[in-house]
Design goal:
single chain; 393 residues; mainly alpha; 71% helix; globular; disordered N terminus
């Protein structure tokens, strides 16, 4: 619920709440995680081989969850299938674009997971008589060929699918930026830099997210693998380049808004929300959490010390900072664009509830569901590094 001048429900409201903040955040984790997983299959980055399965499993989990977040914000989610698939609203509605890209991406993911885990499923089905073995047998779809030629065909299919998946990743998350950038009624959204800025931050968050899963998964839940310093170093080097790209777009956006290169409305609204002088409602969230702790400090530490890049402790801490920083970016973009009033003065006073459908409890439930999905897919498909299988590949 939104409060203005101490009273609730008056004048103006923020209609896109916390679930809509979570939606681009999850889709960013999806796109970035997929890029990490595809690096091994496309460019044969051997040091990323141990986490290729984990990255794609987490990416698929985020794909499923990204579709749930907008439904959590909808007042009538039961109408979603009819509205999105059967109403004639493409290409006029951005959600029409979403459902088409999401559906193609989901089908692409199913093929990728099939070829990636086909050999593992065949072996598990032959040795495991429990539920996991039965699921693996079903997922083989009758395939029993584990010969070298069959494995080569799997790799060729994964190479082609990875190219398509990266294109879909850019389209899927770039469209989210397009969704905001195309809304002319909000001065802080009507900005052509938003789509590439969303894409760059998606790669940043995806790399950091996979790094966290790698440290937690292999460090806590794996009995046959250990965390490799070379893998951490490679991930963090990729994160450095991604952060520089993100900072570049942040600088353009900052100059575009702060220095008056745009309209007076953009200049006024940006200062009302993000400026130190006012101070703005989201000043600390933007300058301190998003930029300083989320991007600048991590990239400086990763650059100046190879030991930090190879350190489990420092990678864990800095990946948390980066992930929180990208979350702050999504919050600043979605909520910050709605804070300037259209008929009043100043900004809308934001008060996020705990129990409502657009409150903290919904957010906790969505993230909890995401962790559950990752564990389920990880258990049945096998997310760990399998040296014997991978050596044959």
């Amino acid at each position: 619920m939104i409060a203005i001048n101490g009273t609730y429900g008056t004048l103006e409201n923020i209609y896109w709440g916390l679930p809509i903040v979570i939606y681009p955040f999850l889709s960013g984790l999806l796109a970035g995680s997929f890029v990490v997983g595809a690096l091994y299959h496309l460019f044969h980055v051997e040091k990323l081989k141990p986490i290729s399965k984990l990255a794609l499993i987490s990416s698929f989990a985020m794909l499923l969850l990204a579709a749930v977040a907008p439904l959590a914000d909808a007042l009538q989610p039961s109408r979603a299938i009819w509205e999105l698939y059967f109403r004639d609203h493409f290409p006029y509605s951005p959600l029409g674009m979403f459902i088409i890209i999401w559906t193609i991406f989901a089908v692409t993911f199913l093929f990728e997971l099939y070829f990636l885990f086909r050999t593992d499923n065949i072996k598990r089905a032959a040795t495991d008589n429990g539920l996991r073995g039965k699921v693996s047998k079903f997922l083989t779809f009758g395939s029993t060929d584990t010969s070298e030629s069959a494995v080569k065909r799997d790799h060729k299919a994964l190479w082609i699918i990875s190219i398509l998946g990266i294109i879909l990743s850019v389209l899927f998350h770039g469209y989210v930026g397009f969704l905001f950038g195309a809304i002319k009624a909000r001065a802080l959204w009507s900005d052509p830099i938003i789509p590439p800025m969303f894409i760059s931050s998606a790669v940043v968050s995806g790399i950091a997210f996979v790094g966290l899963l790698y440290i937690v998964g292999f460090g806590v839940f794996s009995n046959k693998n250990k965390i490799e310093a070379d893998t951490l170093d490679t991930l963090n080097q990729a994160l450095i380049y991604a952060i520089f790209a993100d900072l570049f777009f942040d600088l353009i956006e900052w100059l575009y808004s702060v220095r008056g290169y745009n309209s007076y409305e953009v200049y006024k609204d940006w200062h009302a929300v993000f400026s130190w002088g006012a101070p703005g409602v989201l000043t600390v969230n933007y300058h301190i959490i998003q930029l300083l702790f989320g991007l600048i400090i991590p990239v400086i530490l990763f650059i100046i010390s190879k030991g930090i890049r190879r350190s489990i402790f420092w990678t864990f801490i800095l990946d948390i900072l980066v992930t929180v920083g990208v979350w702050a970016m999504r919050f600043n973009a979605v909520i910050g664009g709605q804070l300037p009033t259209k008929i009043g003065q100043g900004t809308i006073q934001l008060n996020i509830p705990f129990w409502n459908y657009d409150g903290y409890l919904t957010g906790i439930g969505l993230f909890g569901l995401g962790i559950f999905i990752i564990f389920v897919f990880g258990y049945f498909l096998g997310w760990e590094h399998e040296p014997e299988t991978l050596n044959k590949q």
